[in-house]
Amino acid sequence: MPWAFQAEGLVKRYGKTTALAGIELAAEQGSVLGVLGPNGAGKTTAVRILATLLRPDAGRATVGGFDVVRDAAKVRRLIGLTGQYASVDEDLTGTQNLVLIGQLLDLRTPDAKARAVELLAGFGLSEAAGKQVKTYSGGMRRRLDLAASLVGRPEVIYLDEPTTGLDPAKREDVWSMVRSLADDGVTVLLTTQYLEEADALADTISVIDHGKVIANGTPGELKRVVGGQTVLIRPADPADLVTASAIAGAVADRQVESPARGVLTVPVDGDAAFTEIVRRLAQERIAVTELSLRLPSLDEVFFTLTGHHTQQEAA
Amino acid sequence: MTALAEPRLTAPARIEPRPFGLARHSLALARRSVLKTLRTPEQLLDVTIQPVIFVVVFVYLLGGAIAGDTGKYLQFLVPAIMVQTVMFGGMATGVNLNTDIGKGVFDRFRSLPIGRSAPLIGSVAGDLIRYVVAIVSLLVFASLMGFRFQTGVGSVLAACVLTTFFAFCLSWVVVLIGMVMRTPGAVQGTAFVIMFPLTFGTSMIAPKDTLPGWLQSWVGVNPVAHMMEASRALMLGGPLGDHVVWVLVWSVGILAVFAPLAVRAYRRRT
Description:
Chain A has about 325 residues and is of the alpha/beta class. Chain A is built from 12 helices and 14 strands. In chain B, about 75% of the residues lie in helices and about 0% in strands. The two termini of chain B are about 35 Å apart. Chain B: GO terms for molecular function: ABC-type transporter activity.
């Protein structure tokens, strides 16, 4: 498979601050690359270079084989960009925003209008099509923004923290959209601060810190490195703690811990262990008030990979 | 929600480039600018209320002293203050662009395959509607106060078109300021510092021969002064002289220097 985009040794400095210190990113055509990192790791800078908005100080990047600096105009015909902040015009209506972008992409006006109608329908915005964007909710804006970056049927789309600030239901919406994009053969670069999100969507994850890739691989590979998932059990009756602990320990074949009163956690290697724990708890008729399978947080991932926490990064 | 219910809604496809891109893209962006102005009519306050206030203040405060009669002074002032009104209206282009450029929507424009100058040309061209509003509201109000054209429709229209063209060219100076300054407030402040000597260092308020010698020299070279005299001649009659030639030479010169500088500043701004 050819690379849909590729960045090699990208360096970007702002005065004394080094935003990117030789970053390498690449995605195969039609795949989803998750770029995982805390605030200030260089995610947005990398996206801006790949979107031809910034020139790198060193290194090179190509999209569809075109250099982002020398062939910027050709790259711009292949890409769509959705920033962290909605990049649509608040004073215009949803339709006007999309038609304008269609016209700027060289669609004939009737085609631009037809494309706007079909995208607004696809993103559940038909009813709001004639309303000014300033009247839209946060979730609606995000959807319009995504629609705006899809007007030109791009081959590569950059989604810079597309779910930041969205509530869980809206986040699910964005996730399902990302999956449909991948199904349609669009290559997606998704930046995120949540391992859970990268795990749910990405074919490959690059973890970045201080403008460098510190880990790279499939979600499975990454989880093996950072310790995989943890099952959390909170029995309804504290008297069941001992039995529940025995079940969890036996299934996972690991040490069960109790990080808080009435709560048990145990690391597991695969989803099957979770199902097995659920089955055995049911068999023993142990009622639970909380039972979840969770991934390590970004902070835990960083602690495992770098030995320090993300909060210290920011400081 | 049924996201992307229709399959292949987002399947990649190339759009073939069409000719005359810069003109088409600039026009589409000018339309955006006009739509924004119409959606937020309060943005037109500076070209509707402000000229009215200027006319009232000058005519009733100074008219008697300068011309001995407010009616006579109104005739003297209106063709000239029309130029100032339209120029001040052009200042908003720089301020608006400075505000606009910080928003995400300009990132989107930058990531599209359009000419780098298209967003600037679009904004400046779209603001021509502000000039039209300014001219119409000023002339309607002046007529109500008693102002009367002394020439034909053709001459009056020529004065309006020449003023608009002149202000359009001059607005590229403000666009450059808008690209260089960091905040809209700084743009406004800097633009005022430049606009004041240009608009008041003229025969707008008082006849040129009443001014001190050094100021008369400035009025002699100031393109705005030539524009105001041309406007007077076209609306009230009287010798047109070489004013129109000076206005055209200055306009084209300013456009040729400042438009490329503004586009360059825009490209450098990230």
